[in-house]
Design a protein that fits this description.
Elements: E1 2-10, E2 16-25, E3 30-34, H1 41-48, E4 56-61, E5 64-65, H2 74-78, E6 81-84, H3 96-106, H4 111-124, H5 140-152, E7 158-162, H6 170-185, E8 189-193, H7 197-200, E9 206-211, E10 214-217
Parallel strand pairs: 3-8, 3-9, 6-7, 7-8
Antiparallel strand pairs: 1-2, 1-4, 4-5, 9-10
Length: 236
């Protein structure tokens, strides 16, 4: 699904965010990226989503070499990737329904299909019935769940999240991570960057430590601790 081979990323100001990094994520795997602020986690995710391009090296995502991908191919490529941001990036003047359905509108989906998928996505994150609320009327945790619903409404095969629990209290953070775990359990590849080591120890999945733009180890999957995950049904 994702393969970094000796990838470097240097910004115009000379800062080297990724340094000779090699990493593979298998299809259907859930992986946590950890490391201190500035270690390169966010840049790594931007490279996967082709928000940034490698300076050197090869990065394959879904069988495509992102370093050589023509600009015209980037929009359809991104439709198979759900992206969750720490700061939500919601349209505060539009209702929840419009925020979640935006990727489908851009993709030209018919209105009936948009309605079906938006309601299914909101149901998956526990917000069905809040379609007409504006994001400003929701709590921080609910806003983050709207962002997750928007990310998965297009039924992506890959879901990436950059510090999705950074502004949440521990209970809400666990709830959000459980949502990601549920999607992984139905076959979605999930890549999450987080500094919350204590939280990810609740999940028995692989943890990759990034330091100085390199993989620094810690790739093994720790044994899972007991946790309660409340399922919300199958993906529509």
């Amino acid at each position: 699904m994702i393969r970094f081979e000796n990838v470097w990323k240097r910004y115009p100001n000379g800062r080297e965010a990724i340094s000779n990094l090699s990493l593979s994520v298998e299809r259907g795997e859930m992986v946590f990226l950890t490391g201190h602020s500035g270690a390169g986690k966010s840049t790594l995710l931007k490279l996967v989503a082709v928000i940034e391009r490698p300076t050197r090296g090869m990065l394959m995502v879904n069988g495509q070499n992102t370093a050589t991908m023509p600009r015209s191919k980037i929009p359809p490529f991104r439709r198979d990737i759900g992206i969750v941001f720490q700061d939500h990036k919601l349209l505060m003047d539009r209702p929840v329904y419009d925020n979640v359905g935006l990727p489908l509108v851009i993709a030209g989906q018919p209105e009936k299909e948009i309605d079906k998928r938006v309601r299914a996505a909101l149901d998956q994150v526990g917000l069905l019935g809040r379609e007409r609320n504006r994001p400003i009327e929701l709590s921080t945790g609910e806003q983050q769940r709207v962002g997750i619903a928007r990310a998965i409404v297009g039924k992506p095969s890959l879901l990436i999240a950059d510090e999705p629990t950074g502004n949440l209290d521990p209970d809400l953070a666990l709830e959000v991570m459980n949502i990601f775990k549920r999607f992984n359990e139905v076959g979605v590849t999930v890549l999450v960057a987080t500094h919350d080591v204590h939280l990810i120890e609740r999940f028995g999945v692989r943890r990759v430590v990034i330091e100085g733009g390199r993989v620094a180890g810690g790739n093994e999957a720790p044994p899972p601790l007991p946790s309660i995950v409340v399922a919300r049904g199958e993906l529509a």
